[in-house]
Write a structure and sequence with these properties.
Two copies of one chain form a homodimer. Helices cover 51% and strands 5% of the residues of chain A. Chain A is mainly α. Chain A has a domain at 3-83 and 129-153: Arc Repressor Mutant, subunit A (Orthogonal Bundle), CATH 1.10.10. In chain A, strands 1-2 form a two-stranded antiparallel sheet. In chain A, a hairpin with a 5-residue loop joins strand 1 and strand 2 (60-63). The radius of gyration of chain A is 21 Å and the shape is elongated. Chains A and B meet through helix 1, helix 2, helix 5, helix 6 and helix 7 of A and helix 1, helix 2, helix 5, helix 6 and helix 7 of B. Chain A binds a DNA duplex through residues 2-4, 21, 23-25, 34-37, 39-40, 42-43, 46, 53-61.
Amino acid sequence: MSGGVEWALHCCTLLSRSAEPVPAVKLAEFHDVSPSYLAKQLQLLSRAGLVRSAQGNSGGYALTRAATQITVLDVVEAIDGALPAFRCTEVRQRGPMATPAERCTAPCTIAQVMDSADRAWRDSLRAVTIADLVADADRVIPPETIERTRAWLRGGTVVPGT
Amino acid sequence: MSGGVEWALHCCTLLSRSAEPVPAVKLAEFHDVSPSYLAKQLQLLSRAGLVRSAQGNSGGYALTRAATQITVLDVVEAIDGALPAFRCTEVRQRGPMATPAERCTAPCTIAQVMDSADRAWRDSLRAVTIADLVADADRVIPPETIERTRAWLRGGTVVPGT
DNA sequence: GGCTCACGGACAAAAGTTATCCGAGTTGGG
DNA sequence: CCCAACTCGGATAACTTTTGTCCGTGAGCC
């Protein structure tokens, strides 16, 4: 799995805390990651329709739907793509005992097992939303820090406290 | 996921049909794949203890346990490794609102969700054994072909029928 | 003792990932 | 109405990981 998935998830949780759009540079500064590379992940989120980008002086990124309507799977598929990890190469149709193609209407057993596992994985990720992540984070982070974060998102660039 | 997983699974199903050891070259010929690369996958299976290699003139590979005692997950982990796909880089400990390390005893919510999904995936693969794959294949392949395969495994190199 | 076979590491090629830059478009103010 | 600053977006390059191949070494059978 791409490492950008983690960044994208953190960005979504942060965006859900802000009413106004947040520029990519600010998201990168908040998470202390490479701005140029994070921009790429945000573009993927935008292309997937999870976030909307606004240009101009007070532009930035914002979620297109409520955090309760965005699942972790949505974000993972936006970054890593929706293709399953396993791809059957039809080994059964090769070699001296090859099964003729006309008998290969259904996917082979191995592919079925892999698809089933892939479905279980996706189901598990689909069951959690960005709102769930935020709620769980709020249970751990002190309320004061949350308020400081909101202020930091609204205000200009702030020098981190010593 | 590595493409060698598919080959390894096919090899295991084939090995379960043979009482005698099968050389790597023969396994490669049966599946019509690169012998040099398949040898590498077989080494991984051997290192994981799933197959035993016998050297000498009538040597080859054989399963160490009954096919009912080898799960698909065993093979997948032997080839691809047992490490989870997602690795948390502790983004929460970075940036202006970093959470202090002493408060990070439990893994962050995102890592928990990913681990849970990974567990669901592995559970699904663990539920199927090599014997299940063979049983399902026998339901599709004509009995005559199965017998021809057994004969091919016993005998020397056979020219495929026209 | 000669032959065949499996093992292991070393080595090259390919793909995917990570990282960076510069141009196009938009907003807001003068 | 024009200018300037700020934003995203796509194209481009370096790196790491994976994939694939090869040959030398050691061990067992005839």
